[in-house]
Amino acid sequence: MRSIGIFISVLLTILLSVPAANAQRFVQTSAANATEAQQLKRDITGKPKIGLVLGGGGARGAAEVGVLKVLAKEGIKFDYVVGTSIGSVVGGFYCLGATPEQMEEQFETGKVMRHFMSVPLPFRIVIAPITMIPRLFGSKSYDGLYSGTTFRKYLVGKMSAHDQNIENLKPTFAAVCLNVIDGKPYMIRSGNLGLAMEASCAVPELRKPIEMDGQLFCDGGVVCNLPVKQCRQLGADFVIAVNIDEPFKPIPLHDLTKVGSMVKRMLTWELHDMDEPQAMMADVDIHPDTTGISLISTKKKDAKRGVIAGEEAARAALPEIRKKLAEIGITYSAPAAAAGSAN
Hints:
- The chain is an alpha/beta fold.
- It is 41% helix and 12% strand.
- It is built from twelve helices and nine strands.
- It has helices spanning 2-16, 61-74, 86-95, 100-108, 111-116, 121-131, 133-136, 149-156, 193-200, 228-234, 261-280, 300-327, and strands spanning 26-28, 50-54, 80-84, 172-179, 184-188, 210-212, 215-219, 238-242, 284-286.
- Strands 1, 2, 3, 4, 5, 6, 7, 8 and 9 form a nine-stranded mixed β-sheet that branches.
- A hairpin with a 4-residue loop joins strand 4 and strand 5 (184-188).
- The model is unreliable at 6-22, 120-127 and 333-343 (pLDDT under 50).
């Protein structure tokens, strides 16, 4: 029921916002609960493996780029990167070698979200009945206002076939999706990177789900929006998580009289409730303040605000990161030297 509720909440929120070759390809996982937080943390033997978790949140992914800018200057590198929804896009780009500055440009120019929604959403909604006509003549397709061709081409860009395969990426990468067939979350661990990122971003009813190997995948954010558990399952000893959902905090009563306010409020609560046990599994949870940034915003000012929020949150977390990394034997020759390395 929760998944169905989140499907509906996401769709309504969007509408109301308008003015490895040998690796197992699909690795089944599960949602997190609070009792697992300590169970998945284990004693470190040998060289610590560092994991980065990037949560879902649409246009708020710009905040993840801001976090990466700070961590890159700190010299922190990762052995594992796991992302959900827009986090899979930022994480995939990162594993391909894109710099935070390059990703920042993609968000600030609106390229990411414009390719995600290749036609303005109001127009797509208006013409939706027309796109249904082929069904009258026997054509069958999955529900969704947008299909994936334009977005997928943008994601893979000019990558070679070798680079497009997840199993060839360094650091190790996984995109988290929900399998609509069996109702379970999965990590996509091999195969085409663009297809995996597209599947992880397939918000129900907004984007068509993606069929792979007889399975059907949609946005992992409906069940594992902050995939810390999944990163630990891959083998990470130390995890830095980036949560870009709007913080759930008390608001003035009169704010809930606005049109669509209850849907937005409940979506914020659903994500908070889902993410909290995952965040407990992280060694460091970085949570930029993305309040007011729409999930589907293409505005440059929102992207800039997201990047700045990410930078501020990451800088505030640096003392904790340095302290905890030192406790497991990872130190820096200079606290903010770009030449430093976490592994």
